[in-house]
Amino acid sequence: MTNEMKNIQIFDTTLRDGEQSPGAAIDPERKIVIARQLGKLGIDVIEPGFAVSSPGEFAAIQQISRELQHVEIAGFARAVKLDIDAAIKATQDAARRRLHLFISSSDIHLNHQLRKSRDEVVQIARDMVAYGKQFVDEIEFSAMDSTRSGRDFVIQLVEAVIAEGATIINLPDTLGYAMPEEMGELFRYVRKHARGGDSVRYSAHCHNDLGLAVANSLAAISAGATQIEVTVNGIGERAGNCSLEELVMAIETRKDAIAAETNIQIGEIYETSRLVSRAMHFPIAYNKPIVGRNAFQHESGIHQDGLLKNRSTYEIMDPEAMGISRNMIILGKHSGRHAIKHRLAEYGIPVADEQMEHVYNKFKETADAKKIVTDNELIRIAGELTDTQPDPYVLQDLHVHAGSQRSRTATVTIRENEGGTEKAYVAIGEGPLEAVIHAIQQAIPVAAEFEDLELHSLSTGEDAHGEAVVSIIHNNKRFRGTSIHNDIVLAAAEAYVAACNQAVMTTGSRHASAKDAVR
Ligand code: MN
User: Fold this and answer.
1) Domain map of the chain by residue range?
2) Do 84 and 101 meet the contact criterion of CB atoms below 8 Å apart?
3) Coil, strand or helix: which one is 102?
4) How many whole angstroms from 46 Cα to the centroid of ligand 1?
5) Angle at 51 between CA 47 and CA 247, to 5 degrees
6) Ligand 1: centre distance to CA 252 (Å)
7) 443 CA distance to ligand 1 centroid (A)?
C-alpha cells in the first residue's frame, strides 16, 4: 500500500443524466437551487443540462455558468455543430468550462441507430472535436456504449480525438452491462495502447442496471481513471447512474484500500440528497446506502446496545458527519431497554430503574401492535407511567372539512402544558393537510420552517394504518416527528406537533412568544 492519495474529480450530472429519470424533469429555477447546493457540496465539475434541448434549459445553464465560478461547467453536446454551438454559447460566462462531446462506438449503435460506418464515425468525431477546440481548450470526449464496443475500434476513435485535441477520455458503461474486472481491463487497455493515451485524463460514467455502477467506477479508479461521473441519489436513465454519496463514502471509508480522496464536503451529503429528492419528486428507497431512512437504523436490541456503548461496534460510518441526525433513528420491537432509556434521556425525561420495566413492557406491547414506536408515543408511554407530562404541546382535538366545493378548513385544539392553557385555532388551506398545518402553526409559537411531509401506507389487508413523517427546521437544526394512525390527517397533525415538541424540548426555546415567531 502506498501513502500517495490520488485525487478523484467528482463530475456531477444530476441535472443532465439525472434529469433523464422518468418523472424527474424540473424547471430551470429549481436547477439553479440544486446547482448552488452542489457547489456547496464541493463537486469539481457540473453538467447542468443539454443546452440545445430548450430555451429554458439554455437559460438555466447560462445562469449556473455565471453563478458557480468555483466549479468547472461542462457543456453537453452530440457530435453536431448545432449542439456544440448551443453548449459553447450557454457556458460562455463560466470561470472554467469544458465541452463534453459524445458519439457511439458500439456496432449495435452504429448499425441500428446512427447507420454509419466506423470510418464515418471516426471522421465525424475528428471534425467535431476540431470544431469545438476553436472555442475551448478542455474537451471531454465520450465513446458511448464503449463497454459493448470492439476494443480496436475504441482505440481507433480515442486516438483520433486525442490527435484533434481532446483532453479527457470518458469510457461510459452506458447500458450498465460491464463487470468490474472488464471495466478495469478496458481502461488499462486504452491507456496502454492508444497513441497519446498517456497525455490525457480518464473518466468513467457507469449505469446501475445490474447494481454495479459504484463497483465499476471503483474498478475504473484502480485502472487509472481520475474522474467519475455521478448523480445525487444515483438518479438517471433507467436504474440510474453511479450514486454520488455511495461512491464518495466508499472512497472516504476505505481510503486504505482505494488510496484515493475527493474534494467533497461530507457534511453536505444529506442536505444535498434531501434537496434533490424533494425538488425532483424522487423518493429515496428506505434501504438505500448512506441516505436511505434505514441506512443507520439499528433495530436489533443487541446492535442498539452495542452502538450506545461504542459507535464502531455496529457502524462503519458516522451518520452525523454526513449531516444525518441521530434522532431520526426509529425504535422498533427489537429495541432494548438501553436504547429506550437513552432516547428518553435525550428528551430530558429521566426514568428510574423501577419504572423502566413498566415503560419497557408498554413499549413492547405498542411495538407488537404497530411495528415501530414513534418518539411521541414513547414520550406518551413514559409520561403516563411516570405520571408526568413532558410534552410542551398536546393536540387535544382536530376537526377537518375537506371536499370538492369549498376551501378546506381545519380546527385544532392545542393544550400548552406549562401554562395549562387550551386554545382552538382555525385555518384554511388548498388541501386538508395544508389547513391543518396552518392551524397548528398559529397554535404553537415556535419559529420553525416547515420542510417536508411524507405519507406512507402501512396497510396490510383491511388494517389500514398511515404513517406521517414531518420535518421542520428550527435554529438551523432539523427535527422530525412521526406518527402512525388509521386516520392519515390525524397522523400528519400529530407528527407535526411531535416535531415542534422535539424542537422546543431539545433547544429549550419553550418560552418563545408568539410575537417572536417568524415563519
Ligand atoms: Mn448516462
Assistant:
1) 6-280, 301-385, 393-517
2) yes
3) strand
4) 14
5) 15
6) 24
7) 49
Dist. CA 14 → ligand 1 center (Å):
10
Residue 30 Cα, ligand 1 centroid: separation in angstroms?
A: 21
Cell of 368: 407488537
Q: Are 206 and 187 in contact (CB under 8 A)?
A: no
CA 17 / ligand 1 centre spacing (Å): 5
Query: Residues 138-193: pLDDT tens digits?
Result: 999 999 999 999 999 999 999 999 999 999 999 999 999 999 999 999 999 999 99
Architecture of the 6-280 domain: Alpha-Beta Barrel (3.20)
Instruction: Single out the residue of 252, 208, 210, 251 nearest to residue 233, CA to CA.
Output: 208
Res 380: pLDDT: 80
Question: Who's near 153: CB < 8 A, 6+ residues apart?
Answer: 105, 107, 118
DSSP annotation of 242 = -
Q: Ligand 1 centroid to 68 CA: how many Å?
A: 23
* Span from the CA of 205 to the centroid of ligand 1 (angstroms): 7
Q: How far apart are the CA of 447 and the centre of ligand 1, in A? A: 43
Q: Of 197, 234, 227, which is closest to residue 212 (Cα–Cα)? A: 234
Ligand 1 centroid to Cα of residue 240, in Å, is: 8
Q: How far is the CA of 137 from the centre of ligand 1 (A)?
A: 24
* Number of neighbours of residue 390 by Cβ within 10 angstroms: 16
User: Which candidate, 124, 120, 111, places its Cα nearest to that of 83?
Assistant: 124
Residue 459 CB-density burial (10 A; 0-12 exposed, 13-18 middle, 19+ buried): exposed
pLDDT beyond 60 at 42: yes
Q: How far is the CA of 390 from the centre of ligand 1 (A)?
A: 52
From ligand 1's centre to the CA of 145, what distance in Å?
9
Looking up cell 464496443 gives 149
CA of 209 to the centre of ligand 1 (A): 11
Buried b / exposed e along 218-232 (16+ C-beta atoms within 10 A): bbbbbbbbbbbbbbb
pTM assigned to the model: 0.82
Expressed in angstroms and rounded, the spacing between residue 241 Cα and the centre of ligand 1 is 7
Separation of 174 CA from ligand 1 center, angstroms? 5
Q: Strands 421-429 and 408-416, how do they pair?
A: antiparallel
Instruction: For residue 479, give the nearest of 495, 458, 455, 457 by alpha carbon.
Output: 495
CATH of 393-517, one of 3.30.160.270, 3.40.630.30, 3.30.360.10, 3.30.413.10: 3.30.160.270
Rounded to the nearest angstrom, the distance between the alpha carbon of 123 and the centre of ligand 1 is 23
Query: What does the pLDDT look like over 372-411, one tens digit per residue?
Result: 787 778 888 888 777 666 788 999 999 999 888 778 999 9
